Amino acid sequence: MQTGRVQQTLAGCIERTGKSLHSGKVSTVKLWPGFAGEGRYFDFRSNVIPASIDYATESPLCTTLRKDGYRISTVEHLLSALEAMEVDNCRIEIENSDPEDDDHVEVPIFDGSASEWVKAIEQVGLKVATDECGQSYERMAAHVNEPVHIRKNGSVAAAFPSPEVRITYGIGFPQAPAIGYQCLSSAPFDSSYYTKQIASSRTFCLYEEVEKMRNLGLIKGGGLENGIVCSASKGWLNPPLRFHDEPCRHKVLDLIGDLSLFARFGSQGIPVAHIVVYKGGHALHADLARMLSASI
Fold first, then answer.
1. Strands 274-278 and 166-173, how do they pair?
2. Is the pTM of this model over 0.85?
């Protein structure tokens, strides 16, 4: 259905360089204005990988896009910011600082939130996106008309009919009392709410799982400067939190990024629905996006 506005893109170029979370290597991202109808896509070594659920593959602790042997990891925070800030069309050029990594690159983590991307988008601004002939396109949005849900290993993700975008998210970490059980519900969900309540929430982990994750080759670039760490016995190791329920809010940030992969041809990625998730993760988010995609 029509949203009542035309598709948008960036008013200028954005360039940011930083360390990645899992590989620990440095990469540079350049965001370029895109043509109307192109949507969001990555350009890695002249290989185009659309930011689409069709190219999402399961990977530990992040969302990865794969096409023709090339992989781009930890795309969720960047895509979350682009979706929430209504950047419908964008060319995302990304490159490694290490020339030996010719088939894999990871988006920088910065402080573990989407704040760096949101600030950059606000600084450069937005403009109406047009195609190569100068024509603008209507921004469309999918509406959920019948409930859909998926369950997996005690987790659930669902989408219910709603006149507006709403998100309800719950998490449970009984092994870490400082986190415990948290729930966040937003109505309605829009760019203003995202900027003030979601974008600055940082990724988090349990201290007792750090060694295990590093033995698996993960979070090599992780530290107290790019995430919040909670100990089961000692609580938060690098307070203060930005919100009392910052872990739950970060899960919403991830969800927006993962559901943005539902977008097609510059349309809205988040479907107009009440999205409800409990104990979710990137794989479950992607499964919900695939289920929604298969229903249209």
1. parallel
2. yes
